Amino acid sequence: MQHFPIFLATAGRRIVLSGGGEAALAKLRLLLKTPARITVFAAEPAPEIAAWA
Predict the structure, then answer these.
(1) How do the domains of the chain map onto residue ranges?
(2) Residue span of the signal peptide, if any (predicted)?
(3) d(CA 5, CA 7)
């Protein structure tokens, strides 16, 4: 299995996203639709991630 899909309740949660590439950007786009507080750690974030920060 290469992917492990999970469903989490995000209300009141803090989520740390590690990475700044296309995969991280795709996840960030979805996470921004939730009420979670999001922190991103990336050495070289994609321009859209940098703009969000």
Answers:
(1) 14-52
(2) none
(3) 7
CA 34 to chain centre: 11
Question: Token pair 């700044």 is at which residue?
Answer: 20
pLDDT for the residue numbered 52: 86
pLDDT digits (tens, 9 = 90+) for 18-42: 999 999 999 999 999 999 999 999 9
Strand partners, 41: 18
As a whole number of angstroms, the distance between CA 48 and CA 30 comes to 14
Residue with tokens 């990336």: 42
Across the strands, what pairs with 20? none
Q: How far apart are CA 13 and CA 2, in angstroms?
A: 26
